[in-house]
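Run log, item B.
One chain of 238 residues. Sequence copied directly from the ordering sheet:
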Amino acid sequence: MLSFLKIRHGGADESSMLAVLNDFIAGKIIIWIILLGTVSYIIWRVYETITDPYGYGKEAKGITKRTGIALSAIADALIVYAAIRVLLGTGNIQVDGQPEEERQMIGNMLKHSWGNWFVIGIGSVVSITAVVQFLYGVTRGYKERVDMDHFRPDVINMIHFLAWAGYIARGIILGITGFFFVKAGILENSRYVVNTDKAFDFIGDDVGHVYFIIVAMGTICYGLFMFALGATYDADKD
């Protein structure tokens, strides 16, 4: 939203924001908090997938849900990867949001005979993750993970709204990202690869500014829901 309103000159993706924070002492502390917290969350998601604390079972439906849990950690892993690169000073992360390093990496892959299929595979996994995120929010798949029955009805409804808006927005951004990865693989052109910033640009430039704002606000809702999720998390079926 800051980029859209021209208040901040720079990209609207996770990596560029981390690069900006890294210029300040307080910012470095925030990056470490994000890094350690996100790593912990990924470990927990892997633990959920393997140990099945909610009793999904080993039938097709249960395996599907557990696979969705594992896939949902991909977006978080990308944040961890970006945070480590920023803290170590490696890579060429642009504060303007340009995915130059990602495009260069994909370009190198496409030089190999297997490269286009590998890139298409990445895009397909990201696209499937997007669908999982969308369905997770719409069907309230998170309900068994939160202990909020003691809250007032209006608070419960607010949390459900944050989750609904957040997961749909997150699914849209991941879906756009996955689509362009698939397109880059099919056309064997790394210039089609997008990150979060360029996915937002696509919405604003090709779909409409109103939809850009809606998805941006939905993404903020996702962040707020994650705070609520952390405060009310129920770590097992009981």
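Observations after the first pass:
- The chain has one domain: 14-232.
- The mean pLDDT is 87.
Flagged for discussion on Thursday.
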